[in-house]
Design brief:
two-stranded antiparallel sheet; 83 residues
Length: 83
Amino acid sequence: MNAKTGDFTAGPGGVWTEEVGVVTGALTLRTELADDLKLTLRVQYQQADEWYVVKGGRTTVHDAADLEPVHALVLGILDRPNG
């Protein structure tokens, strides 16, 4: 499995997760790519142990090279500290 991580600050409304609903504040995004090209987006409170799957954050990509651009795109969308 390959993964990319990056810190961000969620804006108003936070990030919806499958396990606990909305999470807000200082978060870390982890974009995971399995060997079968299944991609999963997870978030956690910075420095926490628990990871949560982003609602709608599972898909299959066409190439392993998609990991970096997908991670950068999602991180850019989620990082909106001022709304």
